[in-house]
Design goal:
Elements: H1 7-10, H2 16-28, E1 40-47, E2 50-56, E3 70-74, H3 75-83, H4 89-98, H5 112-117, E4 122-126, H6 129-135, H7 140-147, E5 151-154, H8 161-170, E6 181-184, E7 188-193, H9 196-217, H10 233-244, E8 249-253, H11 256-262, H12 267-270, H13 281-284, E9 289-291, H14 296-314, E10 327-330, E11 334-339, H15 342-364, H16 373-380, H17 383-390
Parallel strand pairs: 5-6, 9-10
Antiparallel strand pairs: 1-2, 1-4, 2-3, 4-7, 6-7, 8-11, 10-11
Length: 391
Amino acid sequence: MENLWRDEEAKKFTSDLELRVYTSNLLGRNDQLVLHGGGNTSVKTIQNGEKILLVKGSGWDLVSIEAAGFAPVKLAALLEMAKLSELSDSDMVAGQKAAMSDSSAPNPSVEAILHALIPYKFVDHTHADAVVTISNAVSGEENIKKLYPNFLIVPYVMPGFILAHTIYEMTKGVDWTKLGGIILHNHGIFTFDDDAKKSYEKMINAVSKAEVFLEENASVNLEHTLIRSDCDIIKIQKFFSAQKGYEVSVVINQSPLAKFYASQENLRSFASRGVLTPEHIIRTKRVPLIMEDTNLEEGVNNYKKAYMEYFHRYATNEMPLDPSPNYMVIKNAAVISFGKNKKEAQIVSDIVEHTMLAVLRADKLGGYKSISEENSFAMEYWELEQAKLKK
């Protein structure tokens, strides 16, 4: 993985926040690290004699974040929240908002408490494809331990307060100087340091280690056989516009990767094993529509029926989201993504593109394994994730 830090460029930035913006943008430039709003960063500083966490604001992308995109939150208040045994989403949001030194700033990231817990000035968090691919394999726990022997390795738990409190408990008495970073299974990676450059470079080096491992152990040869080219895009667009109640934009992917993915045997089970990292589910849903040997109307009706069964298995007082698919895989033809506009459809397509390669590579490591169906539902219907879409 290329290190994008440039000393000459970095000399222009002198304050803590300027350096935080710079390295956040560097992380955001690499879609192997973060996609469309993914990941978050922070810096601890002093404002008016008080310790403040400047953390990525909700709704900002790392690639384009500016100083105004960081939410200033009183560090002491966040650390007190981490000690609580329980904290509802609404109370967490309200507590973080109340602890802000500037109420006009964006809402802090849902990971603000976790950033506060890490006792270093700069904290970087990404959903690096290579790291998550390895951890999403059946052999993930074993391989992650071997690759990152000095990292804190955390089993999957729900992001937000639950994750922060879990790490609070796990790190009691831990010597942080001996930790190279944190791996969150099925989720991502944290690195940190008191120096912006070092924290960034720790991320690049850690992810590079995972990339080398995949090159040596999980290379994918994108061969395919029969490929159809008879996708009636106009028909598909009209059909899903009627299903969703608005004019749908579509992105059709017939890249070598998409063609190879769509040509797999047992496609329905192969392509329906869940998301690469939890936050993707609000864009893609847990699984796509698989079109093999049914017509479009029958396929969508079956998909919607299965979605509602999934909803009722786990729902408490939630209202169901639109049960129609957000992307489809057509056997031996293409992968097609949908959105309310071209940008939204492209976001879905980008996420699916990264997921496809990860699935193929994880299968080389014993099999791809995402978070459970129950955990997927919790993320899909988490009010703090749904709020991102509204923005």
